[in-house]
Amino acid sequence: MISIPKEMKDQMIGRIQSYFEEERDEEIGELGADLLLDIFMKELGPYYYNQGIADAKALVEERWGSVEEDIEALKRSTGGGRYR
To answer: What is the pTM of this model?
Structure first.
């Protein structure tokens, strides 16, 4: 499981608590929200991680195509010279 900074985890726990209060009209304590966050990270985190990897791969492939085009544009003509 990934490690996140305490400040970020505290914010996420607060958002879970707010969600339960605002959307479900329920109260969830800090411990409950922390456990729920751990479950989400363990069970759902890999899906988001893998999608991030796929997105990064697509971006690198797109950029690499652009680099290849730029490199090809640097080639010099080899035909039509004075000495054939």
So the answer is: 0.68
